[in-house]
Amino acid sequence: MTETATLRRDIQALAAALEETRDQMEAGLTADLTGLDTRVAALCAEAQSARGDAELAAALERLLPTLDAVAAALTRQRETLAAAAEGRHDPHSARQRASAVYGRSAPADLPSDPPATPSRQS
Question: Composition bias, kind Pro residues: at what positions (predicted)?
Fold first, then answer.
């Protein structure tokens, strides 16, 4: 496989990973973005060494909307977590949604463990 073909494959793999990450984040899950900046920088550096290849440039440009979507999802998650930490009502926070559905926490006088059930002897 040529160096350019390998680079195209790596760009496609990154695009798929970014789309999956975006989907996870938009579903409210946290995503591990460790190394993303390094991976993108390495691909850009490799593509720059293959100057004049319009297909590589186009493939990298197609990553931009997905990178922007991941950044937007990350911003929304950060804002939601900050709101929850400050105790502000945030309809996107799972804690706030659960509170709204189930009401306030249980009264303090309820036992923490259910009573043990007697066993039957045969």
Answer: 112-122
Angstrom distance (rounded) from CA 46 to CA 12: 14
Largest CA-CA distance found in the chain, in angstroms, rounded? 84
* pLDDT tens-digit map of 57-80: 888 889 899 999 999 988 888 888
- Give domain limits for the chain: 1-90
Cβ neighbours of residue 118 under 8 Å, at least 6 residues apart?
Answer: none
The pTM of the full predicted model, rounded to 2 decimals, is 0.62
Residues near 80 by beta carbon (within 8 Å), at least 6 away in sequence: 90, 92, 93
